[in-house]
Each structure stands twice: as C-alpha cells, then as structure tokens.
Automatic annotation (TrEMBL):
CPSase as annotated region, ranges: 1-171
Domain Carbamoyl-phosphate synthase small subunit N-terminal, first and last residues per copy: 2-132
Any one of the GO BP annotations: glutamine metabolic process
UniProt-annotated binding residues for L-glutamine: 46, 220, 222, 248, 251, 289, 291-292
Taxonomy of the source species: Bacteria, Bacillati, Bacillota, Bacilli, Bacillales
Statement: the UniProt record of this protein carries the keyword Mitochondrion: no
Protein name: Carbamoyl phosphate synthase small chain
Gene that encodes the chain: carA
Function of the molecule: Small subunit of the glutamine-dependent carbamoyl phosphate synthetase (CPSase). CPSase catalyzes the formation of carbamoyl phosphate from the ammonia moiety of glutamine, carbonate, and phosphate donated by ATP, constituting the first step of 2 biosynthetic pathways, one leading to arginine and/or urea and the other to pyrimidine nucleotides. The small subunit (glutamine amidotransferase) binds and cleaves glutamine to supply the large subunit with the substrate ammonia.
Oligomeric form and interacting partners: Composed of two chains; the small (or glutamine) chain promotes the hydrolysis of glutamine to ammonia, which is used by the large (or ammonia) chain to synthesize carbamoyl phosphate. Tetramer of heterodimers (alpha,beta)4.
Length: 366
C-alpha cells in the first residue's frame, strides 16, 4: 500500500511505500548509478542535504554492517529506491537498511520507478524535492517547496570541529576535513602516515605551525565558493607544502589558483565513470560524487595544467601546478565504493612529498 510520496519542484509526483523514518524532509534530489556500495553512499558526507536516488533496483540485500561506513553518522536527507530488502542475506549483516535509517531519522521511499525519476533529473537537472505522507496535498507541498532554499553551510555541518591526530611513523600529513570519507584517512594510515585532521576553517598560519610534510584536501559537499576561508588558506600554503586535493579539495585548489568552477546539470555520481589521463594516455574507471566542476577554459594563465578529463563529457578530472608541488583529481581514488584503478595516486602524493623534502634539504645544506 502506498503511503508516502515524493514531490519534485516541477510538480512531478511519485507515490510509494515508506521505510526508515516517517518524518517529512526536503532536499536536492540526485541520483547514483553504482550497482553496489549503498552503505558507503549513504554515509558519504558529500551527500549532505541531498535526497539520493539509487538506480540499481534492489537495495539493502546484503544489509548494513560495521565495516563499510564512511562516517560515524550519515548526512543524507532521504533515500529513494525501487525496492528495499527486508531480509538481507550476508554473513556480515548487522541490521536492515530500514532499521538503520530509522535509527538516524532518515526517511526513505520505495516502490517507485527510479529509472523514470533518473531520466527526469537528467533532462531537467537536479531539483528540489520533498518526501511526505500521501495524505498531504500536492499544492501545499509545492508551495512549501517554493519557499525553501537549499542550505550553503554543508561543509560546516560535516567537517570536524576540533583537530585530532591519528599517529603514525611516516610522513606528517595535515588532512583538511571538508566532509572527509574515512577511506581517504584509511589510505594514508595504510601507508604509515602521521595524520593531523583539522577543520575546514583552519588557517594557513596554524597549518604551517604543525610543520607538515604534505597537505591533503578532502572531499566534501556543496559549492566550493561557499568556503572562501579555505581558498585563502590554500593560497597561503601552496608555495611551501605539497598538496593533494580530492573532489571538493580539487575544486578549491583550482579556485585558489585563479580558475573557476560551475554547477553541473546533474553531476557525476556513480562507480563506473571513465577518466583519461592525458600524461600517460591511459583510461581508468573511477568512483565519483560531485555536482560542481572546474571550468576547463578558466585554467589558462593560472599556472595549472590539465592532466585528466572525463570521457563522457570532457569535464576537468585532474590538474597539476606547473611551479609548485600540487595536484588534484575530481574523482575518488580511495574507491569507497568503486574500482581501485587510481589508488596509486596516494603513492604519487607521498613520492612528491619525499622529493620535496630532498630538495629542501639540498637547499639547506648548499
């Protein structure tokens, strides 16, 4: 029996069965095309404030487990699926997706045509939507939706409040948390790095006082122009410390160097996006989740070099600075979930850190 409805700002209505929390929620409706990894998607902070549509038809079939979280608590506003499994089958499963969403006060709607919804978003672009009970009138919901604006403080919501340390014996890396996925931290600790995680608004002077060997700019939600303090921080450190940016960190590095970013029609969200590396003429499958992109033409006269492009639409997927040890990618090399083709980028970053250390020592002893 249908008891919940999804209403889009263009007036389109989908009716289905509710699961998870029963509270009404609004947000930007987006879609992800991954076939697996729904737990990592739900707990990815880059989805903060969004209602996520999963195009794969059966969600929850292997349950929820303790190992595949990307954050302690999810930040999505709502979940839209074709079918939510009530009886997961997996030896690691601890609970159903319904129980998990209820525990975190996240509403879901099942039983609707998610392929049709995805086509609407592809044609119209991302738009606002509301998940509400079926007994509420559509005109009143649309009026409410018209008066609601999307928040622009998602990075503040998802970033750590205070700095903390994950000890290690290797390179000292400052990780600037814009809404970090744990997969990034996991890749650094796997390589024995001593990681200091700092908030998004940690200033350049404070970061340099930590004497880092390298700086990691993480993924995160929202428009990169909504965090101007982070752009200024990058300007203050780029000449002194090697930098590796991922997703939002990639966009912020571009803005700090004078390039521009733009909002995409419906973004890239999935685990099968092909990216071509222009330097080694190889193509990789990548995991992606972003609604903004760096404007290719704006890279001129910024000191940045285009290194990778998306084969589907030729948007910017990688950049590197011509003069300073800094590079970034738009996709997720930590691959949670998704292919592990580009995991080597973490090794490239640490190799760059080591080479920078060697140059600094040679200058000091010259």
């Amino acid at each position: 029996m249908n008891n919940r409805q999804l209403v889009l700002e263009d007036g389109t209505v989908f009716r289905g069965k509710g699961f998870g929390s029963d509270r009404q929620i609004s947000g930007e409706v987006v879609f992800n095309t991954s076939m697996t990894g729904y737990q990592e998607i739900i707990t990815d902070p880059s989805y903060c404030g969004q209602i996520v549509t999963l195009t794969y038809p059966l969600i929850g079939n292997y349950g929820i487990n303790r190992d595949d979280f990307e954050t302690v608590a999810p930040f999505i506003n709502g979940l839209i699926v074709r079918e939510a499994s009530d009886y997961p089958s997996n030896f690691r499963s601890d609970e159903t997706i319904d129980h998990f969403l209820k525990a975190h006060q996240i509403p879901g709607i099942a039983g609707i045509d998610t392929r049709k919804l995805t086509k609407i978003i592809r044609n119209h672009g991302t738009m606002k939507g509301i998940i509400a009970d079926c007994d509420e009138s559509v005109p009143s919901i649309l009026e409410s939706l018209t008066n609601r604006s999307l928040r622009n403080d998602q990075v503040k919501q998802t970033s750590t409040i205070k700095p903390y340390i994950v000890p290690g014996r290797g390179f000292r890396i400052v990780l600037v948390d814009f809404g970090m996925k744990h997969g990034i931290l996991r890749e650094l600790t796997k390589r024995y790095c001593h990681v200091t995680v700092v908030p998004y608004n940690y200033g350049a002077e404070n970061i340099l006082r930590l004497k880092p060997d390298g700086i990691m700019l993480t993924n995160g939600p929202g428009d990169p122009k909504d965090v101007p303090e982070s752009i200024e921080m990058i300007k203050g450190v780029i000449k002194q410390v090697p930098i590796f940016g991922i997703c939002l960190g990639h966009q912020l590095l571009a803005l700090a160097c004078g390039a521009e970013t733009k909002k995409m029609k419906f973004g890239h969200r999935g685990g099968n996006h092909p990216v071509k590396d222009l330097e080694n003429n190889r193509t990789y499958l990548t995991s992606q989740n972003h609604g903004y992109a760096v404007v290719k033409d704006s890279l001129v006269n910024t000191g940045l070099k285009l290194t990778q492009i998306a084969l589907n639409d030729e948007t910017v997927e990688g950049i590197k600075h011509n003069h300073y040890p800094a590079f970034s990618v738009q996709y997720h090399p930590e691959s949670s979930p998704g292919p592990e083709d580009t995991n080597y980028l973490f090794d490239d970053f640490l190799r760059m850190v080591k080479e920078n250390q060697k140059r600094s020592e040679e200058i000091a002893y010259a």
